[in-house]
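Here we describe the complex-level prediction in full. Unlike the single-chain runs in Section 2.1, the two entities below were treated as one system.
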Amino acid sequence: MTACLDISGLSATLGDGRRILRSVSLTVEPGEVRALVGESGAGKSMIGKAVLGVLPPSVRIVEGSIRLEGQDLGALSPRDRRRVIGAKTALIPQDPLTALNPSRRVGPQMTDRLVHILGWAGDRADRRVRQLLDEVHIREPDRVMRAYPHELSGGMRQRVLIAAAFAAEPRLIVADEPTTALDVTVQKQILRLIALLQKEHGTAILFVTHDLGVVAKISQKVTVLYAGKVVEEADATRLFADPRHPYTRALMAATPRYTDPFASLLPVDETVLAGLAAEIADADRRWEAGHG
Amino acid sequence: MAEARIRPRRRFDIRLWLAGGWLLLALLAAIFAPVIAPQDPLAQDLMFERLPPFWMEGAEPGFWLGTDSLGRDLLSRLIYGGRVAFIVAFAAAFAACLVGSTLGLISGYFGGWPDRIISRVVDIWMAFPPVLFAILLVAVFGTGLGSVIIAIAVIDWTRFCRVIRAEAMSQARMDYVENARIAGFGRLRIMVAEVLPNVLPSIVALLSLEMGIAVIVEAILSFVNLSISTDDPTWGGIIAEGRLSIHQAWWVLVFPLVALFLTVLSFSQFGEGLKTRFDPVLR
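The structure predicted for the assembly as a whole is:
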């Protein structure tokens, strides 16, 4: 079976030649949730943006490939790439406050893609969106669809965005820290909702986060990223039972626990960071040797 | 579970209504000038020269705001002058808005080389002193209503361009623009469907402000006799005449100034009021 998303050997640089992704490989099988974990600046959002074709203009992919259901995005013309990405993927964004257009009503924003990209009839798209709003437990879908985004709370907006992401039945959803901008009580509900819809629709998700607590709840596979390099990759159960890389162990020690809130949180140990720096320098040396 | 917030009650905006009221009054007077004006604005009568306004000693009935040094009725001349002012205001402001907003939107949203070209042109354009530029343009095109309108539009499109460019730039960085790109929408469609609605309140405010500016520029041009033919009354022309007889008949200078002041102020206040009203977040 072809993987839903297959990234292999992906390297990217900034305009000044600094590498921000270092030969990243990861796969997401159909119907699977793959968590992509790392601290801020590790490049995890960049991977999401690369998959969705919205990298900032200063970032250049220098090596490697991204395949969506076996189709190499790099080999397509920009127009075809847009069409493939538009038809097969969707994004659950980080900040629900800026992800909806403030001067348009919510309904049309949700049906836009169904009507104009997928060519559905207007009333079919309307019905579909209403059904999805129902699935994310919004009680008055009609009123929400007529509302402007500022008339909805943050949690409501995130639900709307989740509904919109699932509405077009994409093969892959990139969830870019979807709970980070929400307050803690809402975070849990939203997470549960994403997990529920994921199971019902069988959608594969690339779940980008810095929060290992979230990872444990939602994902089957985990990729740990540091400075644009994959440091560990494993099944979620194995990773939590037996983290092999010292950085992964350090990250876990730095995660607060509800069961033991007074345990001291440990910052990542300096010898671990030194080890990582050496690993990355070594990888860069080999890469540069290979690329003259 | 979170509920949709209740829509806040719309505040009664006195500024919007006062400004809109004056503009409507002045506009109706201008449109129906032949019906409303008490006298022929061009009829001279040296027997009735420099009559004072109605509340002063020596006023004649039918000449409510008095007459000028040739005995022409001031109120009628102001009403007919309003016609020119409003035609210029609407035509010039719409033309400047159309050109400036389109280029600003392209420049701000697309960035890259279209932005560099448009921005350089705007920089060069704005280096010209606007009134001198207007006088130069009218001198080239010849006097007349059409050339006044063209001159104002040619000079003032940069106002729209600069502001709309800045707003479009900040819109282009928003997540909903990125979402539309992920969904597969083209750049042009995103510009029109996602960015334009968000800059529309600013366009409306600028449009109203520009109408006020156009009224002033038209008055300046007619003050120096470069607007339309000298027979037709214009506010600037009346002000120029009133200046000569300020010691004998102050009203000839003061009333057109008041009309000009109120109209320009109303346009700018009306624009601000509309902006708040149009903006779904502010209202």
